[in-house]
Amino acid sequence: MKRVLSGIQPSGQLTLGNYIGAMKNFVELQHSHQCYFMVVDHHAITVPQKPEALKEQTESVAALFIAAGIDPNKASVFLQSHVPAHTELGWLITTIAYMGELERMTQFKDKSAGKESVGAGLFVYPALMAADILLYNADLVPVGDDQKQHLELTRDVAHRFNQRYGETFRVPEPYIPQVGARIMSLDDASKKMSKSNPNPGSFIALLDPPDVIRKKISRAVTDSGREVKFDPENKPEVSNLMGIYSHCSDLSLQEIEAKYEGQGYGSFKKDLAEQVVATLEPIQQRYNEIRSSGAIYDILKKGAREASVIANATLNEAKQKMGFILPQ
Ligand code: AQP
């Protein structure tokens, strides 16, 4: 079975962007692949996090994995910090990645823009992400479009390591959805929907109550026209909403265009809100059950145990190839 690895940061409330761009694919892939899905808590601290909030968000993201449909008997679900091999290989990869490569990362540029001081972790985090993936010799990494550049870096450092020390790591392929790879912000279609956006009106959180979802969609920015047409270049806002609609229903973009022909945006937005509510309601219900049962801790323990077996073996192989003496 081909192996899949991916993660989500507990850096805020998960959004519909995280669900469509990543989680939905996780759920599909678990049936045909050996899957490792983690909450990347070490990544989240590359920007300041309040300790209590980090704890709550970490448990919440883990519970959302399960609520969204990941079966812990099919996939290993765990916290990155529960498998120390991640930070150890992360350090080793930091010595393989070049400064120039890290400087080119657009996510670093975006997240550091306008800040007076930025933690060094934010700069080197793509090396940790590369380690996360290479530890499992993953064949596929399901991510949104925003992570494509980090995946390319992972491929580059894997090649470099293999050339320098001998064949060790499998070079992974990105697995990016064709529609919805980048869900955009509801208030500005030039920015991706992001859980750390300070304006809650810019994103739909997976745990937003139905009325909040309806309100956010009714206020979502559109253009001054009235044609429901998929045209990302000239109608980025409407095209973004159509992408969300298509993912939350069984309608293609063409079918959505045909359904709302000549109707303006009113009924389109109203129906879209109901589609999103219907998609999220069962997830929210399962989420509440999981949180109140406390079952997530056993799931995470089992997941970390399974992940550690693979991760430790790869780490030891990499260390040996680099010339480290392993403890006897
Ligand atoms: N807007 C998006 N559209 C499609 N996919 C998205 N992803 C994130 N936003 C969108 C995908 O979700 C996965 C988990 O992302 P992450 O939490 O590791 O970090 P991120 O990409 O930086 O996501 P956010 O929501 O923007 O988090 P913050 O605000 O903390 O930086 C990834 O596969 C990502 O591609």
Tally of helical segments: 13
Stretches where pLDDT is under 50 for at least 5 consecutive residues are: none
Number of domain units: 2
Percentage of residues assigned to helices = 40-55%
Strand content: 5-15%
Shape: globular
What's the CATH H-level superfamily name of the largest domain? HUPs
In this entry the ligands are: adenosine-5'-tetraphosphate
Q: Evaluate the radius of gyration.
A: 20 Å
The CATH topology of the largest domain: Rossmann fold
The rounded distance between the terminal residues' Cα atoms is 32 Å
Mean of pLDDT: 96
Q: Kindly provide the name of the CATH class of the largest domain.
A: Alpha Beta
Number of strands: 5
User: What kind of sheet is the major sheet?
Assistant: 3 strands, parallel
Task: Give the name of the CATH architecture of the largest domain.
Answer: 3-Layer(aba) Sandwich
Query: What oligomerization state is this entry in?
Result: single chain
In sequence order, what are the helices and strands, one letter per element? Answer: EHEHHEHHHHEHEHHHHH
Strand order of the largest sheet: 1-2-3
* Structural class label: mainly alpha
Core attributes:
two-stranded parallel sheet; mainly alpha; binds adenosine-5'-tetraphosphate; 5 strands; Rossmann fold; 53% helix; three-stranded parallel β-sheet; Tyrosyl-Transfer RNA Synthetase; 2 domains; 328 residues
